């Protein structure tokens, strides 16, 4: 079904595609309405409410390819705020890190396809396992040589000695064993950030807190103010964005003090951190990565992480905190994005839409709010909020056609057969074959 990225359809300045007879879920917050969407080149040219088209029906009319949606829902492609395309569904960090580079590059492209196949047309890289995996993946995706989401490329996480991502034993103090780039002091931070920018990353990722599954606890905040400030200023002067792994309350406050836009996890943010964040809520996004907490605590026994063991008890405790904290943030109007830290065996790539269900069932989001967390805020977290993440005239044509009503049941977004079409940048990754698909689904 997928066409391996070479694309049917419009081309950047070429033809037109008209979706008729669709329910438009535009992700502005408005309830879905019946209408038509005309795509020209890679952008949405026209959104028309109601009735039948001036183009009429038929497979090609008025110069446009006409897709009769037969009442299916047309919505923006989903966007994952915490994507690791080089996390390859392996059973842990070590097999990801130790994979040879050549295999790793190819596997990264496989992951990119899985994510796009699942209706995710965009994602913000949250860290790469090796310095150039994200950069090269993004380049080949953008050149149309491999299928994958629109992507902001990250480098490896920058971490402190002994922090998350520094797992090298004392007798083998070799950098390459680590998932993170280990720094100590502002000058090392400066060199590391500059090096990653030289390699072509869009986003700098800092590990500002620990992580239960590693040696340093989630509530520790190991990076100094001077180190954080250096990373941010070096990124900023080259127009790069910064993200942070920030589970502890102290690390969330560091993000706010230093203007780090993209705060991952934030489970243990205390009232003071919430007050600080609310005061500048237009500047930040929070992505809790909640699937990692749930699945590591409850669904990873097959991979040796037993429920009831000390590490899963820690994740249960954090999950409880995370749920409380996210509910508070949501009430305060802080923008929360989906993105579950997918890419481990127990959080496989391609299941990313599970987050939407979790936001509804555990965090008290309405279905509309959860879908907007995956679309509108996704466009914003990609730094493309004025042209990505909603169905609006002038916006980029990243859309999915869904069989059914995701507002009535957000779970259907996890069913690949329900994704009748996947369009990215005006090109079909998955071309609709509506008659056949719907006949099969209703059979
Ligand atoms: Zn992550």
Describe the structure.
The protein has 443 residues and is an alpha/beta fold. The protein folds into 2 domains: 114 residues, Urease, subunit C, domain 1 (Roll); 275 residues, Metal-dependent hydrolases (TIM Barrel, Alpha-Beta Barrel). Helix content is 32%, strand content 20%. Strands 1, 2, 3, 4, 5, 6, 7, 17, 18 and 19 form a 10-stranded mixed beta sheet that branches. It has a 4-stranded parallel beta sheet with strand order 13-14-15-16. It has a 3-stranded parallel beta sheet with strand order 8-9-10. The N terminus and C terminus are likely disordered. The protein binds zinc ion.
Largest sheet: 10 strands, mixed
**What is the radius of gyration computed over CA atoms, rounded to a whole number of angstroms?**
21 Å
Estimate the strand proportion.
15-25%
CATH topology grouping of the largest domain: TIM Barrel
Parts with pLDDT < 50 across at least 5 consecutive residues: 1-7, 56-60, 438-443
Number of domains: 2
User: Which outline best applies?
Assistant: globular
- Which CATH class of the largest domain? Alpha Beta
Tag the structure with descriptive keywords:
single chain, 443 residues, alpha/beta, Urease, subunit C, domain 1, TIM Barrel, 2 domains, 10-stranded mixed sheet, 4-stranded parallel sheet, 13 helices, 19 strands, 32% helix, disordered C terminus, binds zinc ion
């Amino acid at each position: 079904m997928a066409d391996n990225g070479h694309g049917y359809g419009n081309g950047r300045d070429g033809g037109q595609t008209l979706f008729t007879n669709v329910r438009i879920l535009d992700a502005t917050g408005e309830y879905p309405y019946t209408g038509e969407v005309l795509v020209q080149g890679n952008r949405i040219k026209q959104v028309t409410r109601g009735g039948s088209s001036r183009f009429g029906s038929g497979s090609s009319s008025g110069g446009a390819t006409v897709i009769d949606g037969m009442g299916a829902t047309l919505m923006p492609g989903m966007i994952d705020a915490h994507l690791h395309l080089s996390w390859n569904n392996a059973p842990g960090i070590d097999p990801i890190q130790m994979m040879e580079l050549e295999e790793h590059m190819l596997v990264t492209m496989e992951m990119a396809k899985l994510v796009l196949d699942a209706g995710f047309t965009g994602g913000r890289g949250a860290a790469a396992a090796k310095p150039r995996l994200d950069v090269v993946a993004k380049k080949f995706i953008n050149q149309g040589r491999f299928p994958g989401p629109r992507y902001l490329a990250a480098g490896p996480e920058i971490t402190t000695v002994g922090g998350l991502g520094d797992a090298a034993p004392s007798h083998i103090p070799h950098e390459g064993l680590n998932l993170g780039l280990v720094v100590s002091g502002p000058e090392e931070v400066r060199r590391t950030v500059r090096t990653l920018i030289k390699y072509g990353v869009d986003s700098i990722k800092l590990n500002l807190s620990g992580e239960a599954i590693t040696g340093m606890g989630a509530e520790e905040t190991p990076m100094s103010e001077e180190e954080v400030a250096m990373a941010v200023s070096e990124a900023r002067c080259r127009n790069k964005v910064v993200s942070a792994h920030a589970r502890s309350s102290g690390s969330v406050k560091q993000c706010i003090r230093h203007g780090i836009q993209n705060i991952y996890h934030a489970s243990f943010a205390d009232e003071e951190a919430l007050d600080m964040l609310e005061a500048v809520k237009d500047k930040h996004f929070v992505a809790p990565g909640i699937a990692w907490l749930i699945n590591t605590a409850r669904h990873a026994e097959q991979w040796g992480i037993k429920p009831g063991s000390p590490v899963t008890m820690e994740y249960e405790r954090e999950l409880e905190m995370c749920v409380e904290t996210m509910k508070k943030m949501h009430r305060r109007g802080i923008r929360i994005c989906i993105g579950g830290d997918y890419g481990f065996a127990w959080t496989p790539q391609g299941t990313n839409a599970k987050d939407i269900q979790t936001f509804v069932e555990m965090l008290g989001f309405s279905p509309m709010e959860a879908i907007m967390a995956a679309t509108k805020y996704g466009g914003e977290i990609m730094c493309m909020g004025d042209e990505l993440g909603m169905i609006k005239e002038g916006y980029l044509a990243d859309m999915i056609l869904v069989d059914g009503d995701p507002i009535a049941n957000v779970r259907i977004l996890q069913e690949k057969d329900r994704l009748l079409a996947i369009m990215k940048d005006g090109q079909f990754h998955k071309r609709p074959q509506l008659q056949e698909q719907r006949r099969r689904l209703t059979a």
